[in-house]
Design goal:
The chain has 439 residues and is an all-alpha fold. It has a single domain, classed as MFS general substrate transporter like domains (Growth Hormone, Chain: A, Up-down Bundle), CATH 1.20.1250. Helix content is 78%, strand content 0%. The chain is built from 18 helices and no strands. The chain has helices at 17-57, 61-76, 79-88, 91-108, 115-129, 132-141, 146-157, 159-174, 184-206, 219-240, 244-247, 251-282, 286-314, 318-335, 342-356, 360-370, 373-403, 408-427. The protein is globular.
Amino acid sequence: MKPTSPIRMEHPPSINVPALRRKVAWRVLPLVFLLYIVAYLDRANVGFAKLRMASDLHFSDAVFGLGIGIFFIGYLLLEIPGALLVERWSARKWFARILISWGFISAATAFVETPMQFNVARFFLGVAEAGFFPGIIVYFTHWFTAQDRTRALSGLVIAIPFSLALGAPVSGLLLDVDWLGLAGWKWLFILEGLPAVILGFVTLRYMTDRPRHAKWLSPAERDYLEGALRAEAEAKEGANKITFPQLLRMRNVWLLALGIFATNTGGYALTFWLPSMVKSLSGGTDRATLLYSGLFYGCGLVGVFVSGQSADRTGDRKWHCVFGQAATAFFLAGSAIGGQSFGLVMTWLCLTGFVTYFWPSPFWALPTLTLTASAAAVAIGFINMCANLAGWLGNYLMGWLRSNGYGEGACLIFLSGCYLLGAILVSLVKVQRTRPAQT
């Protein structure tokens, strides 16, 4: 293979690089943050709606476990194509399509009446949203160098606990409304789904695909940023150009894929079933249950921020990820100890909330740090396919456990074991430590 000539990037006197990095971050991240808030809330609000929806429709936990999990089967279908479309076509157009279609389907979930209708709605919601998360990760490679990427990913990942911390109490209020003869859980789906449609049109107008398309950058800033990103990509291509079959023979790819499969088997189940478990453990009202759930996710907000700052400052991604996974396993196991007051259990769960969102942003930096640009796009899609297959398995197993008489303690131990296995697998990944980001 012919070696790639290094590209020398000179800093034009007119370019203030730290200021440019901040300018890009403030333009790119707020919209992505808002989009992912809506995305995750529309994906997970079924766990909030379940508190009333289950009794109204006479759905068992097994029915809910299957329906929640079917979302991830639909999601799998466009994972790799979605990441490649962002790399080779247009993030702006692809994300707009995703937002508009999933918003309508999420709102339509309000009108399901049978388990089959519920399964169909969840399946097509997954199809509609497929490719969004891996596409965002690839989109970040068009704007942020490797040193900045973990911090940028934190801006995305922090939207998960933020959306749920905000969505839990809001959903609690919506459950109590009775407008136009529709139950509160129906309004929950409608009012939390329509913002995605609106944001789809906002994305078409506001999002910029690449620096060369950015009218909000000066010509010198566009040239510098494109050159820096191109130099980084070409350095990777020259050093590590591989085909997809070769990618599937890489040890690290499989460790990352299996590591997130194990972790997300517990993680997605925890997200969707937390309100039901908290209600069972506390014996409180639905509104109190969702306020307790919001507290859990509020702790997660702090964890995401601390993780992103620490990982960029130290240059370490792998061990930040492993710490978050292992600590989540420990705190979940602590919450499963019998005979504790609910206050003590909730303390364990708040600690869990902090660390359970500690690992995702450093984890998703790992593929882009070790692979070429094209290989990384495919690897991210493949790894995220495994992550979402875990979403189906974890929710199916939680529904089965609860329908077969297993208590909250047994369910929490199951979740703990998933996180521990994920930590062990990621700890075996071999990755070079990157230099700390310059601020």
